[in-house]
Amino acid sequence: MDMAFNPGIRRALVALCVCASVAATAAKLSKSVPSGWGEDFAAAQKAAAAGDKYILLAFSGSDWCGWCVKMDKDIYSDKKFVREAKKDFELVLIDMPQDQNILSPLAKKQNRGLLKKYGIRGFPCSILVHPDGTEAKRFGGYQSGGPEAFLKALKEAAKEAGAPKKPAADEKPAAAEKK
């Protein structure tokens, strides 16, 4: 029996290759967004409005920006930081990698528009945003002092900004512009 021409074996090999490709792509995508973070700004706006929270937008260049990689490693991926920050903030990573293939279709669609909307000129950049999409406080560059210091600065900024501004009842969450 010649296995190279056996249709059952051929189908099994094709299915195995497809599964391996999908798994490799999923693994690539998960590297772009740290555990506990989301990438859907509109969903974060809805959740923030419902939970009376702010949104922390973290703009990053995950595969080319050295300070972004350090910020991710030192702060964004810190389990204690994520656990504590999620109590008061919706966490959203807006990644602008050179390799656009690591982004989900949603991120490819929204991220450039958010970059433009918030006038991002350097990375990393973290912005505290009201649920209605208005900016409350900007933190440019790498945040030294570690996760505890950054969390403290975020909480102080939220307190100074007052209650999170919710979208009007008839207003949909702000959509990022498409490019």
Please specify the SSE layout and strand pairing.
Elements: H1 7-32, H2 41-51, E1 54-60, H3 66-76, H4 79-85, E2 89-95, H5 105-117, E3 125-129, E4 135-140, H6 146-161
Parallel strand pairs: 1-2
Antiparallel strand pairs: 1-3, 3-4
Structure notes:
With 179 residues, the chain is of the alpha+beta class. The protein has two domains: 30 residues; 129 residues, Glutaredoxin, CATH 3.40.30.10. Helix content is 47%, strand content 14%. It has six helices and four strands, in the order ααβααβαββα. A four-stranded mixed β-sheet has the order 2-1-3-4, with helices on both faces. The longest helix has 26 residues.
How would you summarize what this structure contains?
This protein has 179 residues and is an alpha+beta fold. Helices cover 47% and strands 14% of the residues.
Write the CATH architecture name of the largest domain.
Answer: 3-Layer(aba) Sandwich
Percent in helix:
40-55%
Number of helices: 6
Reading off the top of the CATH hierarchy, the class of the largest domain is best stated as Alpha Beta
Would you tell me the overall average pLDDT? 85
What structural category arises from helix and sheet content?
alpha+beta
Q: What kind of sheet is the major sheet?
A: 4 strands, mixed
Strand content: 5-15%
The succession of helices and strands, N to C, reads HHEHHEHEEH
Low-confidence stretches: 12-30
Principal-axes geometry comes out as globular
How many DSSP E strands?
4
- Provide the number of structural domains: 2
